Amino acid sequence: MTEIHRxxxxxxxxxxxxxxxxxxxNSLTYRGYPxxxxxxxxxxxxVAWLLWHGELPTARELAEFQSVERNRRxxxxxxxxxxxxxxxxxxxxxVLRTAISYLGAxxxxxGLDDRDHNLAKSIDMFAKLPTIVAAExxxxxxxxxxxxxxxxxYAENFLQMCIGAVPPAEQVRAFEVSxxxxxxxxxxxxxxxxxxxxxTLSDIYSAVTAAIGALKGPLHGGANEAxxxxxxxxxxxxxxxxxxxxxxxDKRKIMGFxxxxxxxxxxxxxxxxxxxRKLTADGTADELMAKYDALAAAMLRDKNIHPNLDYPTxxxxxxxxxxxxxxxxxxxxxRITGWTAHxxxxxxxxxxxxxxxxxxxxxxxxxxxxxARL
Length: 374
Ligand code: SDX
Description:
The protein has 16 helices and three strands. It is mainly alpha-helical and 374 residues long.
């Protein structure tokens, strides 16, 4: 009997040197560095460089990278024109999918997939995505876009493009930590999608567009948006027990909980939860946090299921003032670094990804002659 691995659960399909998700030690390292230490000591730009190059940048490398990145933030007319014609209420992940497709269509070097060209495209998407997401956050509210500011770093620039000014340091920090934590997570569904497309020797824009489609799903990146809908459904902390009992009876998956690899808790959650607690220290979100804590405690007690990174990140993005449909685009702004690092790694020793299936349909049979089919 053929052994079937549905969802490829537990199946090791290739090696990688980019990150290690360690279920035993419940830890995550990027190129050998624990992600918690990267959050405490690095900017997101430095982590992006680390994922692409395997080492943290020197001061000179960082300065050169920042100069290139800051000069690539502005959108060309092709992309900005296309995005302005999209329906005002379309999902922002559809905007991102469209934007990347237009970037590819507008790039005369689209088909060149050597490392230098792919690295340049990776940096270009990394630089432009904040401009696209910030413009979309404002477009949804009927506001004109704010231009990127080359004098500001990645996080400060993105936030000022969203709200017109750099917010308090605590918000900038919480946002930057979320970008570092979301950046990379080995062969998750969207990254593996990017590697499958790359394995056919298709272009990087096609691989990223496919990965965006995978990330949008609520079982994956779309969960951070769904967390807020769950917390909004629950009237108060006192309602959590009854709500959860009914939800589990209805066989619902509780968004922001569980993980295919981490079974004793997502190693990234404590770091992001600490940032969320700082954002709520002023007591203005006590009701939300009471529900937040009550649901996490009940899920652990009733199902022994821990929160994943989307659980603290959803409320944190809400408290930073982002519209809920913008949450997964924020995840994507970060994960473009991991995706493109994996795309370049796949090409280093490529093999077409083509698994097998076990046929369980009807046995072979002859097609009936003419009349018999009527
Ligand atoms: C991300 O892979 C990655 O690394 C992804 C990610 C990344 O950085 O790229 O970490 C980002 O996608 C995090 C996950 C975000 N998704 C959600 O929060 C959606 C809710 N979570 C579930 O859908 C689920 O936990 C998955 C999809 C994340 C994992 O699914 P699995 O591996 O199929 O779950 P499992 O086999 O461990 O489940 C075991 C049992 C099942 O019950 P039975 O059918 O055996 O009775 O636990 C149940 C599941 O139904 N279960 C849940 C649950 N998660 C698992 N029940 C209710 N709510 C949940 N959240």
